[in-house]
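For the sake of transparency, this paper describes our internal protein records without simplification. Such a record has a labelled line for the sequence and another for the backbone structure tokens. Nothing more is needed to write down the fold, since each code stands for a local backbone conformation. For reference, a complete record is included directly beneath this paragraph.
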Amino acid sequence: MISLLIWATLMTPATLPDPIAVQMQAPPVARFLPPDAESFQKAQTLFAQTFANPGDATLTGAWQKLGFAYRAINGLYLLTDEQGRGAGGYLFRKQGDTCLQVPHRFHDRKTGDIGLALFLAGNYRALAWNTASRKTRVAGSDQKADLAKRQAAYFHAFHMAWLNNQGGPVIQLHGFAREKRRTAAGRQAHLILSNGSRYPSPWLRKTAQALTTAGFTDVAVYGDQVNELGATTNVQARAALTRNHHFLHLELSAETRTALCQKAKQKALHQALN
């Protein structure tokens, strides 16, 4: 069980040490430049090395060659895009077996704060978030920078490095508006869980039960109680499915996201997910 002391001293974005506070409060960058194939592969290799040993002194220089800044901050390790490419932001620690992802921090309000609160609680080895809005146009194309649908992104290189080198689950946070759902079940749900397919795994159903036990209401599993917001076009989910890797696509209603601004509710979510 997580130490109550950790939660009593849990940092909020307003009190985080710089430059984490700067990164988490920054507005979206104005452009999205995808990596070429060579840069993607180099990043994937570096992400794998960073997962394995974030304290490796050679990482700072190696990441700098790809246009990132890498630094240690109070036992955590922060990776930031120094070229304003929409390459995302990343946090690492030496312990933990779960990966957190927030691909729509600006559009799905509060998911960045929720993801950071979970990461700071412990038991999570890495956190990735977007720095360009999902509505930003990809340079040189008419496509949008939706990281959950883009393979050509540093965010996806991070994901692939995790799948290929770590055994723990991936939890990807999203937000939805209940009033916009097309079915009665979708409008009733406050949390919708999916693994990206219509066939929920025992692990997914067990996680849903843990959330219900932790006090969350109207928890629905895609393929069981609800048939929308199933992440069936999510590229991270697809990659995890092909490797039989645990992937949780967790949709949170606006009401649930507001409730998760409270530390007691954050604690309940953390315990249910662990």
Q: What stands out?
A: The longest helix spans residues 37-52. The domain at 4-273 is CATH 3.40.630 (Aminopeptidase).
